[in-house]
């Protein structure tokens, strides 16, 4: 803080000095003409001098006259040279940016630095150490950084919009967002109803053996109900999405489902994960007691559920073994599912899930987990019916916990605190309700958000930046030595064809179209549980309605307020929601170095996903096929294996990372940074150097890398256990597809980029790769 104060004082001194210089020039003018009353003598004086000059010229010899002409010509030439050099210097050394946005962002950057750290030894702590010290992890958060901070900012905006019931001219869909939020905030009504809404739902489904003995033969019926009405996926997941090999149509798809814990590894290594399994069992037992069961009955039932889930974990295929979609894609007819997994009555099941669409047994289906379906069918056939029923009901209960009264939320909190080291109780109710409203009615809420925050000028500016990132990326393709010319040509065509979606889908700004989208979603202002049930019913019909139709580009996978971005391979499109197009990722008044190092790297990251180990399997039209030459495929695998090994060498709290699981994100991190940096260099070559920020003592190239690192800054219980003793958890760190941020900034150790800009020796730069 002291160094920041000194820097601001220094900046103030510079600015005041500049003003004084201006005043000094005015005082000099007054000194040479102290009394304007004598200005009448000016013409007379000039006349005398002019006459004297003519007489002198007449008296000069021929040689003297030539000499004077030569001297004058040289003086003119010298003046032109000085002016030209001055202009060139001004273009290449444009000085310092002292505008309010520049001063503000300079202060922010300065406050995040740790000048005591050598950037060549530990770049991340050099760029972010100051910020990490000043930003302790907030209670209730497992991580905190620019993404989290901006999301908090966006939520505050959405809260104000949702609570401003005096707003006029709202569309019907926008009104529904306010009603949904009001129902969520109506805690007294939620407490009054207690567990009854869920207990009624369980009874309607057929009940379970929590309070009374259960012995029914209704497995198929219960499976249809929990899957169709409550969107639960106990044994497998069924959905509608774009056919990867025919990207102009939507198709039914079947895949393995998720587990109660974040990863199968929790179940397979019980000794190492005893703490988490114990917390999980305690949580389920507490839910059973809250729903009317005795402690003894709940303990027995929930242990059986965990034992069954452990069996599911054993047959679940690890995500790192599912990254090659060409290998796991199997297109069959619906009737073939009966042979693949005979434990399920597939046609009645699919008809229930996708009602009111009429299906027949020749309906095409894509299966992504063929061996898993075979094994889960065997597991279902060999498991007691009551265990299967209890497991299906518990999957529904888990989905409903967060919408019930405080007792259920407290039980969940105790479990999450063990898993993630966070305290949900520290999160205000309004934040939970804003987030849930965004999940259910995100595009209607997004319309309000965009109108309140987003500028069309920003959209145009960002679209231009995307074009520059693309151009830089395509230029880099030319220098890839291991890729053959034919594949390079096709890769360039794919990059050219990427469709950019910036800010928001167009339909949300058209009230009639927006209302049509949410017309069948019934919302009331006082019954939160019922609204959530209505949402499940509504989303099921929307999903069914997409079957056999062409994918719609206006159907985004993220809502406009989201602080994130994504690439969709089947649409070959990159989406940048309005929520992320703000500081600290982007500000049109900032130096380009900051914007390219911020949102530019995000753009490059998503663009590179089109060519990572999964994205590269899709062509420019979004179809899954081999469009690379075999030689380039093999060379790519060799290149990426090096990256797998590099990231697998990293560890957190002595737990090794899975470089294969994070491969796609690591490729995107590395490629995105390089594309953004090259785009910035290209921009400088076209437009000249830009003014530097005050007080930092950095070149703009250095600022690019510092800006990137600071945008990625995170303080988290997952990634920095040494900073948060007692709050570290491997959940979400070892099993996520994204490396923790200090591993993600490891690509800054690239010798050509970091060494050139921070004057590091190549050996130090390579060492940085190992240390970060």
Provide a descriptive summary of the structure in words.
58% of the residues lie in helices and 6% in strands. It has 32 helices and eleven strands. The strands form four sheets. It has a four-stranded mixed beta sheet. Strands 6-8-7 form a three-stranded mixed beta sheet, with helices on one face.
Describe the structure concisely for a colleague.
The protein is of the alpha+beta class and 772 residues long.
> What's the total helix number?
32
β-strand percent reads 5-15%
Radius of gyration computed on alpha carbons? 33 Å
Strand sequence of the main sheet, in spatial order? 2-3-5-4
Task: Report low-confidence residues grouped into runs of 5 or more.
Answer: 1-54, 85-91, 716-729, 746-751, 765-772
| Residue share in helix | 55-70%
Indicate the overall shape.
globular
CATH superfamily of the domain at 215-403: Neutral endopeptidase , domain2
How would a crystallographer describe the biggest sheet? Answer: 4 strands, mixed
Give the end-to-end Cα distance, rounded to a whole number of Å: 26 Å
Overall number of strands:
11
Give the CATH level 1 class of the domain at 215-403. Answer: Mainly Alpha
CATH architecture of the domain at 215-403: Orthogonal Bundle
Mean of residue pLDDT values: 85
Classify the secondary structure makeup into a structural class: alpha+beta
């Amino acid at each position: 803080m002291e160094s920041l104060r000194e820097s601001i004082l220094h900046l103030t001194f510079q600015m005041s000095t500049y003003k004084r210089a201006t005043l000094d020039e005015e005082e000099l003018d007054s000194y040479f003409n102290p009394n304007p009353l004598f200005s009448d003598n000016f013409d007379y004086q000039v006349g005398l001098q002019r006459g004297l000059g003519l007489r002198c010229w007449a008296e000069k010899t021929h040689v003297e006259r030539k000499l004077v002409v030569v001297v004058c010509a040289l003086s003119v030439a010298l003046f032109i040279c000085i002016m030209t050099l001055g202009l060139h210097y001004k273009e290449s050394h444009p000085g310092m940016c002292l505008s309010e946005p520049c001063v503000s962002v300079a202060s922010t950057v300065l406050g995040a630095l740790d000048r005591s750290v050598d950037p060549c030894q530990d770049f991340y702590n050099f760029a972010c150490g100051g910020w990490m010290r000043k930003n302790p992890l907030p209670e209730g958060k497992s991580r905190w950084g620019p993404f989290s901070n901006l999301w908090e900012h966006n939520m505050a905006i959405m809260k104000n919009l949702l609570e401003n019931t005096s707003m006029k001219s709202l569309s019907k869909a926008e009104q529904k967002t306010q009603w949904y939020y009001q129902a969520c905030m109506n805690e007294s009504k939620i407490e009054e109803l207690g567990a009854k809404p869920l207990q009624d739902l369980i009874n309607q489904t057929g009940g379970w053996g929590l309070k009374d003995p259960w012995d029914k033969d209704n497995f198929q019926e219960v499976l249809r109900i929990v899957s169709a009405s409550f969107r639960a996926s106990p044994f497998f997941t069924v959905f509608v999405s774009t056919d990867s090999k025919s990207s102009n149509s939507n198709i039914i798809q079947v895949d393995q489902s998720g587990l109660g814990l974040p990863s199968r590894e929790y179940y397979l290594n019980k000794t190492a994960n005893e703490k988490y399994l114990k917390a999980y069992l305690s949580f389920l037992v507490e839910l059973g007691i809250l729903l009317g069961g005795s402690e003894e009955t709940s303990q027995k039932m929930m242990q059986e559920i965990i034992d069954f889930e452990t069996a599911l974990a054993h047959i679940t295929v690890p995500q790192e073994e599912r990254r090659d979609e060409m290998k796991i894609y199997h297109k069959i007819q619906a009737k073939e599912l009966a042979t693949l997994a005979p434990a399920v009555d597939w046609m009645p099941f699919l008809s229930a899930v996708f009602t009111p669409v009429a299906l027949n047994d020749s309906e095409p289906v894509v299966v992504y987990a063929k061996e898993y379906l075979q094994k889960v069918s065997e597991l279902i056939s060999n498991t007691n019916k009551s265990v299967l029923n209890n497991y299906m009901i518990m999957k529904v209960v888990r989905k409903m916990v967060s919408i019930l009264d405080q007792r259920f939320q407290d039980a969940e909190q105790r479990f999450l605190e063990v898993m993630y080291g966070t305290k949900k109780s520290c999160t205000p109710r309004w934040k939970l309700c804003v987030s849930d409203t965004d999940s259910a009615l995100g595009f209607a809420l997004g319309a309000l958000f965009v109108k309140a925050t987003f500028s069309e000028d920003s959209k145009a500016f960002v679209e231009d930046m995307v074009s520059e990132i693309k151009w830089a990326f395509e230029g880099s393709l030319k220098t890839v030595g291991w890729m053959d010319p034919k594949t390079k040509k096709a890769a360039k065509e794919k990059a050219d064809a990427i469709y950019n979606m910036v800010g928001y889908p167009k339909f949300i700004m058209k009230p009639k179209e927006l209302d049509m989208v949410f017309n069948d979603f019934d919302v009331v202002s006082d019954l939160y549980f019922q609204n959530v049930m209505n949402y499940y019913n509504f989303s099921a019909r929307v999903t069914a309605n997409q079957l056999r139709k062409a994918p719609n580009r206006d159907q985004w996978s993220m809502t406009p307020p989201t602080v994130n971005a994504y690439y969709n391979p089947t649409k070959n499109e990159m989406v940048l929601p309005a929520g992320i197009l703000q500081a600290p990722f982007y500000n049109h008044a900032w130096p380009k170095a900051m914007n390219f190092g911020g949102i530019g790297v995000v753009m490059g990251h998503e663009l590179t996903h089109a060519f990572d180990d999964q994205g590269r399997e899709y062509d420019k039209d979004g179809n899954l096929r081999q469009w690379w030459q075999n030689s380039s495929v093999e060379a790519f695998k060799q290149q990426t294996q090096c990256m797998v090994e590099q990231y697998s060498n990293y560890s957190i709290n002595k737990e090794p990372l899975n470089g294969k699981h994070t491969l796609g994100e690591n490729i995107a991190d590395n490629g995105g940074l390089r594309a953004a940096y090259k785009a910035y260099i290209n921009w400088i070559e076209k437009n000249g150097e830009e003014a530097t920020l005050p007080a930092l003592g950095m070149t703009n190239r250095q600022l690019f890398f510092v800006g990137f690192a600071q945008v990625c800054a995170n303080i988290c219980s997952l990634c920095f256990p040494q900073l948060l003793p007692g709050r570290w958890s491997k959940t979400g760190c070892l099993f996520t597809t994204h490396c923790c941020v200090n591993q993600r900034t490891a690509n800054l150790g690239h010798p050509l980029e970091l060494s050139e800009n921070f004057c590091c020796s190549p050996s130090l730069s390579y060492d940085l790769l190992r240390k970060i």
